[in-house]
Amino acid sequence: MENFNWETFTKKIAVKSTVEAMYSAWTIPREIESWFLSRAEFDRPNGEPVPRYENIEANDVYRWSWYLYEPTETGRVLEENGKDLLKFTFAGACVVEVKLTQHGDHVLVELTQNEIPADDASKREIRIDCDSGWSFFLVNLKSVYEGGLDLRNKNACFRGVVNY
Fold it and tell me: 3 in a domain, yes or no?
C-alpha cells in the first residue's frame, strides 16, 4: 500500500435531482437531517442560531449529531457559493468539499475530503472510517431524494451495522 493516498479521497454519486435541491440538501439544517444527521445545528459568527429552514453561510459554525453515535462533530463552513459548492471542516482539521454538477436529469455529487493527517490513528479513524461513512451517506442521499426511503439504522439493538 505504499502508493495509497492516505491524505485525501473523493466519492461521487449521481442523483436524479436538480442542483438547487442537492444544494439545499447540504446547506439547510432541516434538509441535511433528512439523509445524514439526527441533528444539525449551525450558528452565525455572532452566535445567533441559523433558522432550520435557511441556508448556511461561510463562517457559520456547526454541531452535528448522528443516530446511535455518541460523539458530536463540530466545525466551520469555510466556503459556499449559494448554488453548487460547499466547503467545511470535518474530523478536526480536514476539509470536505462538495461540488454539484447538473448532467441531464441527474446531479453529480462529488465529495472530496482532504488534509487528513498522516499518523496511524488518522489513517484508521479518518481516512478509512470517513471513506466508508461518506459512501453510505451518499447512497442514503440518493435514496432519500429519489425515492423517499431513509436507509439509516435508528434502532439501538443493531449497533455497528453497515447502515450506521
Answer: no
